[in-house]
Amino acid sequence: MQAPLLSLVNFSCERDNRCLFEGLNARFNEGEIWHIEGPNGVGKTSLLRQITGISRSFGGELRWRGEPVSRARFELASDLLYIGHLPGIKASLSARENLAAYCPGVPDTVLDQALAGVGLFGFEDAPCYRLSAGQMRKVALARLSLSKQTLWVLDEPFTALDVKAVAALEQRFVGHAAAGGCVIMTTHQACQIDGLKTLRLGDYQPGRSA
Ligand SMILES: Nc1ncnc2c1ncn2[C@@H]1O[C@H](COP(=O)(O)OP(=O)(O)OP(=O)(O)O)[C@@H](O)[C@H]1O
């Protein structure tokens, strides 16, 4: 049987000597879209940072395609796209320059197509400090259409997006999964995605049995 893309084995997270969650076992496969759910402060962002390797402090085991991540760090990093809850956009740069910084070597015409695809046609040269919060988020999300990575890890990707943009992003996730990708995201918004899988992080708080 093929190993899952990513798996968590008896996984736990501690912050400031406080256990946020423990005993978490999960398998994330190609073709799946996952919603990491839970109340404020339960540890969703912390979990995403552990999955991406930004935080190496965790209990239990993280496996990439069946290999402990300690032996597959490069393989995970090169097949992963992570967008944090802050859009990671430099205000002084234009939308195109920001995108180019994440996608070196990609021609401007292709960058502009990606920006147009998220509704930013005509804003390619605008310095990002002139964009709205939702437009800044769209600059960050334009990376998705240029991504060749299998695993997308997205922290609150719907923040500040209008209804049409939320629906378009949901469709992008569906397309990515249909092409063999995997999406792991957090959101406090209700999602309209068929087959969406949910991991309720609150079920793994100390003293609760999942
Ligand atoms: N850099 C840090 N150092 C110490 N504690 C932190 C740090 N970042 C977060 N925490 C603590 O870890 C806990 C979980 O935070 P985290 O951001 O993972 O929660 P979350 O589930 O993503 O919350 P939200 O829904 O509000 O985004 C919180 O109690 C927070 O105070």
UniProtKB/TrEMBL annotation:
<feature type="domain" description="ABC transporter">
    <location>
        <begin position="6"/>
        <end position="209"/>
    </location>
</feature>
<dbReference type="InterPro" id="IPR003439">
    <property type="entry name" value="ABC_transporter-like_ATP-bd"/>
</dbReference>
<dbReference type="InterPro" id="IPR027417">
    <property type="entry name" value="P-loop_NTPase"/>
</dbReference>
<keyword id="KW-0547">Nucleotide-binding</keyword>
<dbReference type="GO" id="GO:0016887">
    <property type="term" value="F:ATP hydrolysis activity"/>
</dbReference>
<dbReference type="InterPro" id="IPR003593">
    <property type="entry name" value="AAA+_ATPase"/>
</dbReference>
<dbReference type="GO" id="GO:0005524">
    <property type="term" value="F:ATP binding"/>
</dbReference>
<dbReference type="InterPro" id="IPR005895">
    <property type="entry name" value="ABC_transptr_haem_export_CcmA"/>
</dbReference>
<keyword id="KW-1278">Translocase</keyword>
<keyword id="KW-0201">Cytochrome c-type biogenesis</keyword>
<keyword id="KW-0813">Transport</keyword>
<keyword id="KW-0472">Membrane</keyword>
<protein>
    <submittedName>
        <fullName>Cytochrome c biogenesis protein CcmA</fullName>
    </submittedName>
</protein>
<dbReference type="InterPro" id="IPR017871">
    <property type="entry name" value="ABC_transporter-like_CS"/>
</dbReference>
<dbReference type="GO" id="GO:0022857">
    <property type="term" value="F:transmembrane transporter activity"/>
</dbReference>
<keyword id="KW-0067">ATP-binding</keyword>
<dbReference type="Pfam" id="PF00005">
    <property type="entry name" value="ABC_tran"/>
</dbReference>
<dbReference type="GO" id="GO:0017004">
    <property type="term" value="P:cytochrome complex assembly"/>
</dbReference>
